[in-house]
Amino acid sequence: MSDYPFAGLLVVDFGIGAVGVEVTRLFAEYGADVIKIESHEKPDFMRQLTPNLINPSFASSSRCKRSLGVNLKTERGRELVHALLRKADMVVDNLAPGVMARLEMDAATLHALNPKLIVVTSQSVGTSGPWKGWSGYGPSTHPTSGLHWLWNHADAQEPAGSVCTYPDHLVGRLGAIAGIASLIQRERTGAGATADIAQFETPIQFLGDIFAQEALEPGSAQPQGNRSERGAPWGAYPCAGDDEWVAICVRDDADWAALRDALGDPEWAADPGYASAEGRRTAHDAIDAKLASWTQELSPQNARDALQAVGVPAGELQHTEHMIADRNLAAREFIRVLDQPSLTTLLFEGPFYHATQLPEPLLEPAPLLAQHTREICREHMGLADAEIDTLVAEGVLEEYRGEDDA
Question: pTM of whole model > 0.70?
Answer without folding.
Answer: yes
